[in-house]
């Protein structure tokens, strides 16, 4: 159910704000857990996608663990009621302070991204009299066929331990007594819609996993990260991603050992479609090129994805109907990149019309900033209207 169903209530609220369809969120989480459970798979929620308290609470109530990429995310997971035993701490450059905090909480595992990080965690664990459980994040050099800024598994990436360093990683492990290697971790990128990418990915994982086994390193679990994409073009066609195909593809291709658990770190696919950025038209005009322009009260400080990734979000008018024409929809931030869409098809707009920027539940409010000293957007929930 989109924001259009609540337009009479939403028009009374001061904009901009994020609107969350809590029923769709619940249904999405339920479907994901159901499809994963068919194969005994477990899901951690990638907190970076959206750390809104209501969103986090729903993920925890659905039985998910939490994937964190900063010390503050680990703290948020703990304070939200997630058991430390279900928290994984990823992140390519963890500070000593963050590592110490996570060690003190006795989290499930660290996803380690370099040989030097292994040495640092070992030293800090020794200082604290702890043994840290770690997973090695291996960069499998797989092209995810997605935007370069959210592609993390190719060879020329800052992420992960290079597959060329695996030999050295094995030698390093024997010198680090305060580490226990419990898993292998992989993540190749985000917004992946082609199932053959995951097939190729699993074939690489099979090879790497077997190599470790041949060296005598048997791990308890394989963490395949996330990456499943969503439909930004027409969110009503697929409000819930095709988790059946996703997990089914993994099951057919991945060959874990009988004792190995398979974990996932999903974010976007769980929360993107339930969120919409609601904004109001402040002014309309034609620019010097003759283009119709709608200036709205939300900006790149509220939703940076179009400016940062050239991402497309469907834009709908909630308060006007009729024949449509092309609009450039831009915000109030003093940057030429503060444009949501240059060719949004919308009915004739007037000052005060309400627009919904769809599929904004992931990497929307979580990436908001106070540039230009703008206020951060608040949240509105469907079950509180």
Structure commentary:
The protein has 385 residues and is of the alpha/beta class. It has eleven helices and 17 strands. The protein has helices at 7-10, 22-37, 53-61, 71-79, 96-105, 115-128, 166-173, 195-214, 243-253, 268-271, 305-309; strands spanning 17-20, 42-46, 65-68, 87-89, 109-112, 132-139, 161-162, 179-185, 221-223, 261-266, 275-286, 292-296, 315-317, 324-330, 339-347, 354-357, 378-381. The longest helix has 20 residues, at 195-214.
Task: Using brief descriptors, characterize the structure shown.
single chain; alpha/beta; eight-stranded mixed sheet; eight-stranded parallel beta barrel; 11 helices; elongated
Chain-wise SSE layout:
Layout: H1 7-10, E1 17-20, H2 22-37, E2 42-46, H3 53-61, E3 65-68, H4 71-79, E4 87-89, H5 96-105, E5 109-112, H6 115-128, E6 132-139, E7 161-162, H7 166-173, E8 179-185, H8 195-214, E9 221-223, H9 243-253, E10 261-266, H10 268-271, E11 275-286, E12 292-296, H11 305-309, E13 315-317, E14 324-330, E15 339-347, E16 354-357, E17 378-381
Helix pairs in contact: 2-9, 4-5, 5-6, 8-9
- The number of helical elements comes to 11
> Largest sheet, if any?
8 strands, mixed
What is the helix fraction of residues, given as a range?
25-40%
Structural class, by secondary structure, is: alpha/beta
> Which consecutive residue ranges, at least 5 long each, have pLDDT under 50?
143-154
Strand content: 15-25%
Gyration radius over CA: 22 Å
Mean pLDDT: 93
